[in-house]
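User: Batch of two.

Assistant: Item 1 of 2:
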Amino acid sequence: MKLFASDLDGTLLNGDHKISKENAEAIRKAQEQGVKVVVATGRSYNSARKPMAEVGLEAPVICLNGAQIYTVEGKLVRSVPLEKGVAMKIIEACRQKGAYFELFTNQGGFSSSREDFLKVMVDIMMSANPGLKEEEVKQHATKRFQEEEITIIENYEELVSRTDIEIYKVLAFSTTNTTLESVRNELSEETGVAITSSGFDNLEFNHPQAQKGIALELFAKDIDIDMKDVMAIGDNYNDVSMLQAAGMGVAMGNADEEIKQLSDFVTKTNLEHGVAYAIEEMLKVQK
């Protein structure tokens, strides 16, 4: 393989949202052997860079599910925002169905209520992990606000109408599957949006051309690498487009069964340094 693309959350990052020593060393080893590496994430650029910087890793970043591509030097080379009218339809659907949501823009992330986010996240995490203490869960949820640098606003209409604002992604959360399904159904006929998910508790809305697979193909073409020489690794439904586009699609051991079924290879979980294991297997084949 000549190019390796990795998702972050649930993939390259462990349960503490960190890149393990094993994963970092494997990525450096691949880079030293001439393999290009790119991160492909639903996160914003600044949020994606933080765990990489902590372990001294440098790589280009495909972020916000493919809406943006940044070079290793931090230069923005691709930008695919949602149309403003489509963004307002997404906002209205989330409001009507009672889903908490955030907007990710060229001016950072925005939310109408930090308290609503914390309540939703605590409910989700407590139901999934009943053994955790509520204060511990609140600290974990608060950390995400710090990672994504969310600004609280009162008026979304005013924000969307600003000429200096480009909206790249809307992220909706809910404690109930029925709420998310209702939002998805409301927008299922809208041609100006692609709907994916990075977890059981959310929906992600992007421009149809802002998908990881499309961005990865463009990135590979720009550095003259054929997709048959690309290995991509991920764990969730916003990774599907790149897992299918790559010559070798790798699912994490913690991925849903559907993700595993459409992939070419299944590695270990993100708690078992699954990225490192997949890279080592790839490098063995190339010897």
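Item 2 of 2:
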Amino acid sequence: MDGSFPDRAAAGAALAEGLAGYAWRPDVIVLGLVRGGVPVAATVAARLGVALDVLVIRKLGVPWAPEVAFGALGPGGVAVRNDDVAARLDQADVDRVLAREEAELAAREARYRAGRPPLRLNGRLAVLVDDGLATGATGRAAVAVARELGAARVVLAVPVGSARALSVLAPLVDELVCPLQPEPFGAVSQFYDDFHQVTDREVAEALGSGRVRPPGTV
């Protein structure tokens, strides 16, 4: 595939074509990464006729190099840790980052789940969807959290991604779907005509549109 996408909905439609083998399967759940991945995921889930939900994760970034993660937090108290990186940090720095990201995770979970049950992935095939993959740091964190939440299989699906990030993430997932892999890459935004910042309202509307289905239903 060449070029760019008109918007995130169009990107989701293109992504759904590569995920057609998962259509109407009751064990599949599409998880949109907050916030930009949610509109993409909503279209994917609607096209495939499968469950849709949101995955809120918070990457634990090194204070002076935020793109370098020493771990990640997910819903339900899930925490994953990269000990090789964390061991080089002062405990005070670790504690400050943890406190900040735990608070932000709790706030976002409350905002986006809006009273719905906690996310549970035990035995599910989780399709993780974002609007693009640049460095791969967020994708790596999402995969780790999904595994910790009990997903039986993890598929990472993005409309566009850099070759370098894709090569790093491919060994970590059961399947990687990315229809647009341009080189040179640059930034995710350059491959969308409309790449506005997704608002909390848009996330809430996507998740409350009727395309969210309880686990095991279609």
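The mean pLDDT is 89.
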